[in-house]
Amino acid sequence: MPLFLHFLSLFSLFFSPSNSLSLTSHSLSQKPSLSSSSASAKLPFKYSNALVVSLPIGTPPQPMDMVLDTGSQLSWTQCRGEVNGKLVKPGITMFDPSRSSSFSLLPCNTSLCIPQIPDFTLPTSCDQRRLCHYSYFYADGTLAEGNLVTEKFTFSNSLITPSIVLGCAKASTENRGILGMNTGRLSFISQAKISKFSYCIPGRSGSDPTGLFYLGDNPNSGKFKYVNMLTFPQSQRSPNLDKLAYTLPMKGIRIAKNQLNISPAVFKPDPSGSGQTMIDSGSDLTYLVDEAYNKVRAEIVKLVGPMMKKGYEYASVADMCFDGAVAAAAGQGIGDMWVIDGSGKRGDVRGDRTVR
Predict the structure, then answer these.
(1) What is the CATH number of domain 17-215?
(2) From 119, 217, 280, 341, the catalytic residue
(3) Residue-range domain boundaries for the chain
(4) Which residue windows are transmembrane per the record (predicted)?
């Protein structure tokens, strides 16, 4: 979920007719994984402005709603507990550690409690109980803090993850947890040794908002068109370049049949982070570098300019807005927006599914 104002981040980027996105973490390819055995997991998810999947946490498993987030590392869930004698978020589904035999709190002397900025947005610390405390901030204002713990995910008798470090949130601004899925060492897929995963987003025309999330093999993978992702050398260090993200080699943008006159150099990542094209499923807007954004905006103004709201800006960043009464007509007037990757393939950027 990190926010960088100078790159494009897409989550409705489709490379096959099945509306599926399949990601492979190259750093995990040599480790034991779900893809190397018959074990796999297929989970439905609910889609609104986020991909919400219910995951079975603990022993016995407790189903907990978590946002599938390819743009962040640490996973955390809402935990039952009290703060200053008051129940945290009453009425919200929360994980109850007392019901799980595999739950364990991490003490202050664990190595993860030594402040490590790359893994946490704020340094970890010791609380009054000598337990490891974490705080995690996101660019959209989301905050979660609590204790670091270890717990297992039990998908079936044949698929039980090892103990995974995650956050047990006692305070947060969200009612759901986060499933961190980037390539960092503390992400869910890294700790569970999963080398591949995919998610299939429902199309715009269907009435069913349910999608599918696969850990391990996806039975539809034979239909996928694969795109190599970018990696960055260790020497390329910058707080604005996210080397843990899934980064695509974007080359251009097409709206309907018109390929926009944007230089491919605009999308080439530099040490500042400008031009980095990230797949961030935990975000809700798409950001473009100025040169690309201005060309996209000019094309949309040309196609449906009279339908746009005049002098209106959403969240201080979005100035291409439409009233709900004309949104459908505006979408038809614009048509599909495509991004062109380094292999020359096109990815369909759905207008009602684009994110940061």
Answers:
(1) 2.40.70.10
(2) 280
(3) 17-215, 247-349
(4) none
